[in-house]
Amino acid sequence: MYFDTAYIVKCYLNEPESPAVRALVRSAPAAYSSSWALAEVYCVFHRHVREGATTSGEAQELARLFLEHVNDGLWSLIPAGEPFLKRVGTLVISAPPNLFLRTVDAVHLATAKELGEGEIWTNDRHMLAAAPHFGLIGRTV
Predict the structure, then answer these.
(1) Crossing angle between the packed helical segments 103-115 and 82-93, to the nearest 10 degrees
(2) Which domains are assigned to the chain?
(3) Is 39 helix (H, G, I), strand (E, B) or coil?
(4) 120 near 4, Cβ under 8 Å?
(5) Whole-angstrom Cα distance, residue 91 to residue 46?
(6) pLDDT 10s per residue in the chain (141 long)?
(7) Which residues of 59-77 are buried (b: 16+ CB within 10 A; e: fewer)?
(8) Are 38 and 77 in contact (CB under 8 A)?
């Protein structure tokens, strides 16, 4: 199953939908995401520190735990090299003019597509709306 960063973070922070997402990840035969999630997850932890929702020490512990989970294979992160990013660009430039696409959303959607996944799990409304352009079904808990 392919998870975007918003759903990965719900496994570490207590946010709306976190229990349901954790259960979904536990039931997944494999949990995939883009290697871009490495930077994105840390940015979300930092945002929580900036907003006062967590301490710097707590965020560092969460980052350590996430990296441990990556190293242990709980999260299979797919590399996003230059040839892949060129293919992402082709998909983006062919999108309808009214489709709202952010860079990292396009990377996640294209990664799921290249993996042969039929679905992408997220609660991001823009990514859910863009999923069909990438041949995917956007799913949310």
Answers:
(1) 110
(2) 5-139 (3.40.50.1010)
(3) helix
(4) yes
(5) 31
(6) 999 999 999 999 999 999 999 999 999 999 999 999 999 999 999 999 999 999 999 999 999 999 999 999 999 999 999 999 999 999 999 999 999 999 999 999 999 999 999 999 999 999 999 999 999 999 999
(7) beebbeebeeebeeeebeb
(8) yes
* Residue 12, φ and ψ in degrees, nearest 5: -120, -30
Q: Read off the tokens for 10.
A: 């719900």
> Cβ distance 121 to 139 under 8 Å?
yes
Provide DSSP, 96-123: -TT----HHHHHHHHHHHHHT-SEEE--
State the residue for tokens 């799990």.
Answer: 121
Q: Any idea which residue has 């590399």 for tokens?
A: 79
